[in-house]
Amino acid sequence: MLRYLEKLQVLYFLEAQSENHYGEFDISFVEGSVSNREDEERILDIRRRSGMLVAIGACAISGGVQSAGNFEGIIKSEPIDAFVKVDYQLPGCPINKEILENFLKSILHGKSPYVPEYPVCLECKRRGAVCITVAKGEVCLGPITRAGCGAICPSFERGCYGCYGPVHKPNLESFLAYFPQAYQTIKLSANAYNKIYREKLWK
Ligand code: SF4
Ligand code: SF4
After folding, report:
1. Does the Cβ of 151 fall within 6 Å of ligand 1?
2. 164 C-alpha to center of ligand 2: Å?
3. Which domains does the chain have, with CATH numbers?
4. Separation of 121 CA from ligand 1 center, angstroms?
5. 154: Cβ below 6 Å to ligand 1?
6. Is 29 helix (H, G, I), strand (E, B) or coil?
7. How far is residue 127's CA from residue 125's CA, in Å, rounded to a whole number?
8. Distance between CA 165 and CA 177 in Å, rounded?
9. Cα of 14 to ligand 2 centre, how many Å?
């Protein structure tokens, strides 16, 4: 990671450096959700200052676990794309180091960044893991969840609980008809308030 960061000028990263400059940015990577008026003003300001805005992690992309409170009828936490245009999303909770490295590498080579859009099942099969849905009948959100983690959970014989959020066009009708109990797993996940789930499940 450092070899890529050394080729970039990191202007503002409070957790990693003591000298910071809050000015104009070619690219801004934003973590965290929007929970109050101050957050909203900040993300609008960051968008104005940034050529490219990248949402990283389940909180920024979907609202995070704190968005579970939204289902009580009061909006408590929202993803940043509810307020500003987001150019790219790096999913995960936490995000994957290789995906971030590949993203930075593409930027440094002047290419369009690529972030996996296919489901976790593809990584699972590539890894040679036994399907726990087929073998044990256990719930696994792999078919509807974005790849990128390397299918960590199924490779340890545990069902995916969807921390990378939904794939672009999940076949939710078919998936939930097979696994109605997955509905609750999705609703309790850090990605429950993701736009795709909001539009298809909690209308
Ligand atoms: S274990 Fe999960 S991710 Fe792996 S193939 Fe089965 S459903 Fe897909
Ligand atoms: S398998 Fe699913 S829950 Fe586990 S790390 Fe990957 S996306 Fe997250």
Report:
1. yes
2. 6
3. 2-108 (3.40.50.700), 120-200 (no CATH)
4. 5
5. yes
6. strand
7. 5
8. 19
9. 28
203 residues of the chain, pLDDT tens digit each: 677 777 889 999 999 899 999 999 999 999 999 999 999 999 999 999 999 999 999 999 999 998 888 888 777 899 999 999 999 999 999 999 999 999 999 999 999 998 999 999 999 999 999 999 999 999 999 999 999 999 999 999 999 999 999 999 999 999 999 999 999 999 989 999 999 999 988 76
| C-alpha to C-alpha distance for 115 and 88, rounded to whole angstroms | 8
Q: What is the rounded distance in angstroms from the CA atom of residue 107 to the CA atom of residue 19? A: 24
Indicate whether this model's pTM tops 0.85.
Answer: yes
Q: Write the Ramachandran bin of 117: left for phi over 0, alpha for psi from -120 to 50, otherwise beta.
A: alpha
| HSE toward the beta carbon, residue 70, CA cutoff 13 A | 26
Going by C-alpha positions, the residue among 183, 143, 139, 146 that lies closest to residue 163 is 146
CA dist 94 and 100 (Å) reads: 11
Helix then strand count (H, E) for the chain reads 10, 3
* Ligand showing the shortest atom-to-Cα distance for residue 190: 2
User: How far, in Å, from the CA of 147 to the mean position of ligand 1?
Assistant: 11
86 close to ligand 1 (CB < 6 Angstrom): no
